[in-house]
UniProtKB/TrEMBL annotation:
Catalytic activity: alpha,alpha-trehalose 6-phosphate + H2O = alpha,alpha-trehalose + phosphate
Gene giving rise to this polypeptide: LOC100840978
Top-level EC class: hydrolase
A single GO BP: trehalose biosynthetic process
Record CDD domains: HAD_TPP
Species annotation: Brachypodium distachyon
Name of the protein described by the UniProt record: Trehalose 6-phosphate phosphatase
Known cofactor(s): a divalent metal cation
Biased composition (Low complexity): 1-20
Amino acid sequence: MTKHSAFAAEDAVAPAPAQAGRHFSSLPPRDCRKAALGRMDLATSGPLRAGSLVDSMRASSPRHAKPAAADAEYLDWIEKHPSALEGFESVLAAAQGKQIVMFLDYDGTLSPIVQDPESAVMTEDMRDAVRSVAQHFPTAIVSGRGRDKVFNFVKLEELYYAGSHGMDIWAPKTGSNLKANGDGILCQPAIDFLPVIEEVFQTLTEKMESIPGAMVENNKFCLSVHFRCVAEEEWDGLGEQVRAVLEGYPDLRLTKGRKVLEIRPSIKWDKGNALEFLLEALGFAGRGDIFPIYIGDDRTDEDAFKVLRKTGQGIGILVTKSPKETGGSYSLREPDEVKEFLRKLVKSGVTKG
Ligand SMILES: O=P(O)(O)OC[C@H]1O[C@H](O[C@H]2O[C@H](CO)[C@@H](O)[C@H](O)[C@H]2O)[C@H](O)[C@@H](O)[C@@H]1O
């Protein structure tokens, strides 16, 4: 087993160049809207409660490496969430004779975390690895980013894309026989929220101008308020401003990611629903010979891990350098390890027997 003498800072960033944009248009929503009206389950990416916002922002943003003494904690954790590379043979054994379906988060999974969200490009090597995986198994990108933006980073037409935390699902034009509309859209359960999201984007952008380093990202069906580049003494004020704006919008909820506050519609739809939706759309629902693999690094990916646990299908793999509470059953330390895992999977020749 690899020895990790100290936990690296989870939110250390790497520099990266910027990318240009590309756009898809949206059409009327489909059946997933009905499903999204169900009761919200707040266990994982649920809303932040009053008073807890700044604590929550700090907790999700550890800046310092833990001391070497924390190794015991790590060893205990890694025993429960083994490396998917070191435990590769067990993964293969579990997948044997089953149809693998691959789900990949983007930021922190396929690209390293960087200061500027616009610069979070993935390497050509990683693109090759994802391309190869998609030649063998149905593969979807599931991201908090707007779908057009994440597509523009990944640039692979043959994948399924679920942007806006799964609220915008798209099928490839070739290699898929799914019934999408003319633009490839399969599901947009939050389409009614578009005007309100746009309105809140404008308001928050204005408000955040007074906070150096703050940035609001429009992810179409949801928004991200980034505080990675904001001085910590300003976090309280930033959180309060965001909360004050949201008081006027009871149909929106606030969740958090890695140095980011996420604003999204209060509908029962998350990355877990997107995973279930795609499995069903692909005709895999209820089948015992399906092996979904979901790889992600963020709290929002826990919703997908939870679905896999609940259905007893496949595995969730958490990308992290430090122990975290997770529903994932395996772990990988960083995007480079994700790439290695994808390559190994392709090389292993595992296919449905
Ligand atoms: O679901 P994901 O694909 O993981 O997207 C989640 C959020 O990722 C991005 O923010 C994160 O990555 C940035 C670039 O490395 C980093 O600067 C930021 O601090 C992280 O939170 C993205 O910008 C957000 O819109 C996504 O919601």
